[in-house]
């Protein structure tokens, strides 16, 4: 059954003489720049409040050493992990190599987080204009509803793509440029959209590759439904493709110059992904619940887009294109074990489905908020707000709501009087609680990070330049590893991404360092052997003996009263021990 038939537009489409292709350039209202900037600023602050923020988390483990240019320092000359970061496939970080050395890195990362969110909010506002949210209040409402949507909070289902998360990474900045490329393509600005996708590729190569598919779907939609000449599309695509290639060139050059990839991996790459972090790559690592929820989110986006009266073709085409990329990711591991293809992280493209669905749902909710029909304005809009902007598990109920509203659009006067205040109060209260929880979580993350920063600063001042450290290895997210996670050691590792940056000292191994195998497969034997050995160590004496045998000078562990020897120094919950007495 066609969803367009099940959920028809709320109003008749625009007359044939007014083509969506020409709307944005010739019929869009002149924006109030001050109001536009105010909405963008408030939206940026709202997004930061909803996600919380703590620099030095997660992927900053790879990025902070690049900012410090650690691979230029002699003590890292033989460190395969640090050396591999020279070939990190993001022009953004390579451009900033060696630009930070000290605590001001947190200011730099926070500034980039603000910029990232401003780009995202700007792209959302561009979608508002394409979907004909005419007034400032409509744009503001639409933007707030997208940012509050449960589908863009945290990570995507069945792929773990980053959405609104609590730390800055280039991938999440690419979310904003990706949405901007799609919305400009929807307006018919093909050259500009491909140029912006070049920026996306420069930020994150595989996100740029994903985005090409929904762009092709949108271009095809313009040719198929709006009668745009193929020659016109080809000319614009050629100009845009040239700009895209210019942005992509330095990233491609860096990838091709990588000496760690000149030999084919001597191990099964799918097996490595399964033991490291399979959720970006292997569909069998995700639960049926995750897969089902992503399918529901896609259906919600398609159904609500189908109910929009105009300018919906681009949104639906983009949704189908994004879903096609994810579906390709489902089958790819069964068809190929190619490192190059699997490194496209196709399952992560589910994040695009999440964002486009949030846009579609928010567009319909905004129309209902400003509808002249009391039932839409006072019942259906608040109910859609509660279902889409609280818990993601409520998204299946959005489909139920759309069906019920289709069959019985009118609601009794008594219900209309009380529904809106009750529903709005519930939705606002939930999001206020969410903001509070995000603030508490960020504060705890900063406290844990500060322990590692203090340890790293002390190590740089009081240890030999070539000293090796055995740190808690961190959580293993893989399947089939030889040792189970140790909750105590995993807790100690929280905040550890900042250690190498502040200490300028080598760490023996960590679970996150396994990501380097993606761009440096020659690192796999070292990483796999070390992580397997370290995760098998159960006690501090075991770790001290292991460190002594491998020439590791220091062991970082928890501060427990039963420790067999006093620590050299203590930093909050972390204690530093020397292995030298064991070695002697």
Secondary-structure topology with pairs:
Blueprint: H1 3-6, H2 23-26, H3 33-51, H4 60-68, H5 80-84, H6 91-95, H7 105-130, H8 136-148, H9 170-186, H10 190-203, H11 205-225, H12 230-256, H13 269-276, H14 288-306, H15 313-335, H16 339-342, H17 350-369, H18 374-388, H19 395-407, H20 413-462, E1 468-470, H21 487-492, H22 499-503, E2 506-507, H23 516-519, H24 524-535, H25 540-549, E3 554-558, E4 569-571, E5 574-578, H26 580-583
Parallel strand pairs: 1-2, 1-3
Antiparallel strand pairs: 3-5, 4-5
Helix pairs in contact: 3-7, 3-8, 7-8, 7-9, 8-17, 9-10, 9-11, 9-15, 10-11, 10-12, 11-15, 14-15, 14-17, 14-19, 15-17, 17-18, 18-19, 18-20
What class would the helix/strand composition place it in?
mainly alpha
Global outline: globular
SS field, number of helical segments: 26
Give the helix level as a range of percent.
55-70%
| Rg on CA atoms, Å | 26 Å
Distance between the termini: 76 Å
Strand content: under 5%
Question: Mean of the pLDDT scores?
Answer: 90
Low-confidence stretches: 1-27
Can you put this structure into words, describing what you see?
This protein has 584 residues and is mainly α. The protein has a domain of 136 residues. Helices cover 61% and strands 3% of the residues. It has 26 helices and five strands. Strands 2-1-3-5-4 form a five-stranded mixed sheet. Helix 3 runs parallel beside helix 8, helix 8 packs across helix 17 and helix 15 packs antiparallel against helix 17. The longest helix is centred in the last third of the chain and has 50 residues. The chain is globular, with a radius of gyration of 26 Å. The chain starts with a helix and ends with a helix. The N terminus is likely disordered.
């Amino acid at each position: 059954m066609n969803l367009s038939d099940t959920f028809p537009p709320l109003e008749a489409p625009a007359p044939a003489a007014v083509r969506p292709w020409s709307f944005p350039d010739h019929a869009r209202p002149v924006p109030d720049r001050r109001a536009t900037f105010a909405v963008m600023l408030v939206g940026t602050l709202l997004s930061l409040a909803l996600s919380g923020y703590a620099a030095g988390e997660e992927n900053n483990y790879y990025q902070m050493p690049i900012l410090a240019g650690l691979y230029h320092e002699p003590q890292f000359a033989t460190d395969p992990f640090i050396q591999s970061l020279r070939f990190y496939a993001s022009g953004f970080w390579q451009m900033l190599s060696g630009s930070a050395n000290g605590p001001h890195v947190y200011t730099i990362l926070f500034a980039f987080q603000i910029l990232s969110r401003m780009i995202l909010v700007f792209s959302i506002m561009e979608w508002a204009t394409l979907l004909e949210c005419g007034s400032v209040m409509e744009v503001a409402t639409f933007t707030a509803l997208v940012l509050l949507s449960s589908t863009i909070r945290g990570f995507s289902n069945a792929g773990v793509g980053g959405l609104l998360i609590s730390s800055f990474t280039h991938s999440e900045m690419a979310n904003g440029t990706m949405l901007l490329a799609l919305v400009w393509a929807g307006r018919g600005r093909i050259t500009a959209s491909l140029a912006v996708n070049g920026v996306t590729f420069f930020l994150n190569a595989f996100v740029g590759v994903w985005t090409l598919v929904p762009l092709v779907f949108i271009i095809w939609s313009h040719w198929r439904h709006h009668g745009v000449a193929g020659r016109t599309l080809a000319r614009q695509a050629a100009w845009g493709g040239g700009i895209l290639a210019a942005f992509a060139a330095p990233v491609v050059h860096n990838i091709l110059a990588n000496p760690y990839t000149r030999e084919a991996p001597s191990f099964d790459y799918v097996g490595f992904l399964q033991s490291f972090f399979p959720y970006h790559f292997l569909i069998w690592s995700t639960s049926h619940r995750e897969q089902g929820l992503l399918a529901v989110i896609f259906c919600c986006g398609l159904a609500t887009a189908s109910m929009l009266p105009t300018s919906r073709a681009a949104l639906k085409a983009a949704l189908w294109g994004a879903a096609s990329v994810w579906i390709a990711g489902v089958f790819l591991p069964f068809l190929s074990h190619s490192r190059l293809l699997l490194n496209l992280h196709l399952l992560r493209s589910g994040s695009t489905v999440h964002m486009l669905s949030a846009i579609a749902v928010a567009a319909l909710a905004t129309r209902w908020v400003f509808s002249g029909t009391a039932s839409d304005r006072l019942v259906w809009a608040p109910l859609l707000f509660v279902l889409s902007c609280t818990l993601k598990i409520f998204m299946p109920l959005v489909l139920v709501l759309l069906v019920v509203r289709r069959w019985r659009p009118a609601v009794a006067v008594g219900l209309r009087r009380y529904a809106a205040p009750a529903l709005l109060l519930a939705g606002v209260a939930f999001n206020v609680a969410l903001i509070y929880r995000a603030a508490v979580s960020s504060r705890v993350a900063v406290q844990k990070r500060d322990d590692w920063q203090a340890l790293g600063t002390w190590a740089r001042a009081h240890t030999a330049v070539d000293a090796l450290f055995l740190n808690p290895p961190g959580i293993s997210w893989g399947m089939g590893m030889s040792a189970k996670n140790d909750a105590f050691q995993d807790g100690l590792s929280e905040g550890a991404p900042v250690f190498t940056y502040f200490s300028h000292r080598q760490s023996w191994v960590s679970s996150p360092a396994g990501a380097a195998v993606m761009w440096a497969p020659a690192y796999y034997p070292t990483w796999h052997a070390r992580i397997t050995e370290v995760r098998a160590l159960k006690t501090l004496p075991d770790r001290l003996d292991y460190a002594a045998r491998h020439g590791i000078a220091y062991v970082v562990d928890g501060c427990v009263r039963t420790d067999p020897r006093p620590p050299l120094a203590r930093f909050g919950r972390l204690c530093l021990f020397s292995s030298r007495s064991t070695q002697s």
